[in-house]
Amino acid sequence: MRIPVILAASLFAAPVFAGGVVQPTAPAPYLPPAPAVDTDWTGAYGGLSLEYGTGDLGVSDFNGPLIGAFGGYRYDLGSYVVGAEIDYVLSDIAIGGEVTIESIFRAGVEAGADLGRTLVYGTAGYAQASLEPEPGILIAVGTDFTPEGYFVGIGADHMISDNLLIGAEVLWHDFGNVSPNVDLNVTTIAVNLTYRF
């Protein structure tokens, strides 16, 4: 008879040793996943760019700042974005004491991946430079002061808001022969501020 009594007493005392009666805990509330960011890159835009250029004209290397404006239109295809853009940058970069790059005009197309609020793209198109000879410098016969060529590059834009973007871009320009056997090549690195209309 003692074994059942001892067993009953130990069962009665177990909750006391465990810290009292255990209260059931409520299940954690269900939190639905955050909705995916829905962005649309379709529309016209314009902005300003601050660039740093380096390059060579034959054996003469050069570098310096450029500042410009641009405008274009993009179309959002879902996972991809395509578009076209023109831009015009001003410069005062002297090359070898002979000529100065006054400006560069570009007109190109782009295609990229829609990553939500960020767009990563590649671009390519037509480019034309405007050169000005330094006073008193004898320039070779046949020198082209508005050489034409092409550019290719990569870039990225990020939406700060629905209308305001910040971005960065690297472009490689090849303007071909400026004078016999002398090529002009320019690389630019830019930061952009863009407004979407």
Helix content: under 10%
Which parts are unreliable, with pLDDT below 50 for 5 consecutive residues or more? Answer: 3-18
Order of helices and strands: HEEEEEEEE
Biggest sheet record: 8 strands, antiparallel, barrel
Order of strands, widest sheet? 1-2-3-4-5-6-7-8
Radius of gyration: 33 Å
Description:
With 197 residues, this protein is mostly beta strands. It has one helix and eight strands. Strands 1-2-3-4-5-6-7-8 form an eight-stranded antiparallel barrel. Strand 6 (148-159) and strand 7 form a beta hairpin. The chain starts with a helix and ends with a strand.
Output the keywords:
197 residues; mainly beta; eight-stranded antiparallel barrel; disordered N terminus
Task: Give the secondary structure arrangement, pairings included.
Layout: H1 2-17, E1 43-57, E2 60-76, E3 80-95, E4 99-114, E5 118-133, E6 148-159, E7 164-179, E8 182-196
Antiparallel strand pairs: 1-2, 1-8, 2-3, 3-4, 4-5, 5-6, 6-7, 7-8
Could you write a compact summary of the structure shown?
By secondary structure, this protein is mainly beta.
